[in-house]
Amino acid sequence: MILPLLSLFSLLSTSVVYAGIITPKSVVVRQYGGGYGPPQEAPSPPPSSSLPSPPPTTSANPSTNSTSSASGVLGDKKCGKNMCVTATVDGSSVEYLLSSTRQVGWMAIGFGDEMRNTPMVIMWGNGDGSVTLSQRSVSSYAMPVVDPTPPKVATLGQESISTASSSEFRFTVEGDSQTTQSIIYAYSTAAPSSSAVDARISVHQENGVLTLDLSKPLSSGDDSPGVAGTVPLTDTQKLIVAHAVFCGLGFLFFLPGGVLLARYFRTFTPTWFKGHWSIQFAISGPVILIGFALAIAAVVQRGTPHFSAGHKAWGLVLIVLYLVQCSLGAIIHFVKPKNRTTRPPQNYGHAVLGLFIIAISFYQVRTGYANAWPLATGLKAPGAVDIIWIVWLVLMILLYAGGLAFLPKQWRKEKESQLIRQPSDKFGLRQPSSF
Fold first, then answer.
1. CATH number, residue 156
2. Global pTM?
3. Which domain holds residue 129?
């Protein structure tokens, strides 16, 4: 019962990127008239329209680094799993090359270390042989929108090439005194909706943060496109993964475990309540509260609103319901009505509320990895996560349904206890009902 859930958390924490597949197409990209592109990290006045021309290239082959053979050229090249970013210094300007040996829908970089409020350049090839360069920004983790007044204007390079198996997109911006740059990058296999600079783009399959050193010689020993390993998680992404692990363990493993323990053992041993209480409160409580605190820390770090609609709002509701459930269980245990002849109503309420909490917990985990995680990070959970979630849900339902077979025995013991008007010390049947 432990292995399927731990596999789910392992997949969530290691699924930094995975690529989608679309129907390939071949285009030879020419310069496109739309002039939108990203600025540098440090804002500066818009440059003049006549920017220096990008350095000449020795080859248009996507698999060849066109600047690596030039002696004395300063710049840097860093790669992710599906794309590389090459920066080449040319006097007062810097040329950026976004390259990939995979099928490309669009590629992008931004001048900063996170998505929010970072000037971006997003580029893609079109079926008519043109390439679109769109300069965008966004204040939250959502689809970037066109920035009509970017800090720096990007000029599209004429040597851009895109085929079904590889792509090279180039642009040039005015340089500055900074020699070390933090940039974000993103890659998607899904093409935008049109060639317009404000076309809708899909969520990327890969993204990350790279650091470029523009003061060193650009050598031919740098990684080729698509060679580098996995992209490390950012600090915020690590907090989100830790939140998912703790809350997932608390709500999907320990709480259902306490429920099943009570359902199966309440008619066989008087110690069932001690185990039920220990799991539901002493173990689950700290784990759940740690996960909740990690979620708050991630939201603070991202600078987004607390407990807004969706996953975050339901998370708060779930925490409140859990605390109410624990309080109700304590009241049922310590405050017993005298001379009762039937099960008190609060016992039924405790059971129904408990099952509702478990159901909402499964819903929360589903919206967490399927909606909240991609929205916050741009990453997608593997399809196997959905399979594990479904299997775990079905397993919990079957196990609980199997435990209901013991209800006739439970009711018979309760009736016997009521007839003699004494609590059953042996079976602990006057303890709180399990859910």
1. 2.60.40.1210
2. 0.55
3. 22-213
